[in-house]
Amino acid sequence: MLKGKTALVTGSTSGIGLGIASGLAEAGLNVVLNGFGDAQQIETLRAGLAQRTGVQVTYSAADMTRPDEITRMVEEAESRFGSIDVLVNNAGIQHVSPVEAFPVEKWEQILAINLSSNFYTIRAALPGMKRRNWGRIINIASAHGLVASPFKAAYVAAKHGVVGLTKTVALEVAETGITCVAICPGYVRTPLVDNQIRDQAKAHGKPEAEVIRDIILAAQPNKRFVEIQELSDLVLFLCSPAGASVSGSALQIDGAWTAR
Ligand code: NAD
C-alpha cells in the first residue's frame, strides 16, 4: 500500500534522516533527499539508493533556514511525483553553551532549522495531502522535546516547539486520513552525537569511552544508543494501516530516559 507513494525527508544526507529515507525507499516509496554535504558524495548516495531499491530518488539542496527554498522544494517534489504522501521533518543541528553566552546567531539558526522549517514544509505539503485525503507527517523531535538538559537552550526550546506544532496540526487534520506525529528519540549514534562526544571529551579531558558511559548515556537508563534502524522501522509502522490512529503523539524511543 506504500508502493508508488512519495516521501520527502529533510536532512537526509546523513544519520537518522538517511536511515529513514533508505527504509522508505526499501518499502517502495519514491524519495526526495535533502541536506548538506559534498555534491559528489550526495550524488553517489542518491544513485546508489535508487539502484538498490528500484524507486525514484531525487535530491533537493534547499536550506532549511530559507522559507522560500523550503516552499520551492515541496512544489518541485509535487510537480515531479504528483504528491508528497509522507513528510519527515528531520533536519536539525545542535549547539551547547550556557544560556547567557549562547550566540544569538546560533539561537536563530537552531530555531529556524529545528522548528520553523517544520512549519514551512507542513504548510506547503498539507493542501496536497488534504486533496488526496491521505498523509503522514512525522516530525523528528527528541527526548529534549519533553524534558530539558542544561546548556541546550535553543535545541530544547525548538524541540518542545516541534511537539506543540505536532499536536496542533494533528487536531487540525483529525477528521482526514492524515496523521501528524512527533518521534522523540534518546541518543542515537550519528555525526551530530559524535561531535558532542568529541567536544565533551575535550572539555572534560576524558577518553571518549568514558564520556559515552558517564555523560552522554548518563540520562539513558538502558545504557545503549537507539539504533537508526529502530527509528526507520517506527516510521514504517506509522505509515502502515496500523498507524492510522497514532496522531498528535510524542512517541518516546529513548530507553526510558523520559520515564524518570
Ligand atoms: P546529522 O548531523 O547526522 O544529520 C543532520 C542532517 O540535517 C544532515 O543531513 C544535514 O546536512 C542536515 N542539515 C543541517 N542543516 C541543514 C539545513 N540548514 N538545511 C537542510 N539540511 C540541513 O544528525 P542526526 O543525529 O541524524 O539528527 C537528525 C535529527 O534527529 C535532528 O533533528 C536531531 O535533532 C534529531 N535527534 C537526534 C538524536 C541523536 O542522538 N542523534 C536524538 C534525538 C533527536
UniProtKB/TrEMBL annotation:
Where are the coiled-coil regions? none
User: Which GO terms label this protein's molecular function in UniProt?
Assistant: 3-hydroxybutyrate dehydrogenase activity
| Source superkingdom | Bacteria
Task: Give the matching Pfam families.
Answer: adh_short
- Tell me, what is an example of a GO biological process annotation in this record? monocarboxylic acid metabolic process
Query: What family, per the record?
Result: Belongs to the short-chain dehydrogenases/reductases (SDR) family.
Could you tell me what this protein is called?
3-hydroxybutyrate dehydrogenase
Q: Which organism is it from?
A: Panacagrimonas perspica
Q: What is the lineage of its organism?
A: Bacteria, Pseudomonadati, Pseudomonadota, Gammaproteobacteria, Nevskiales
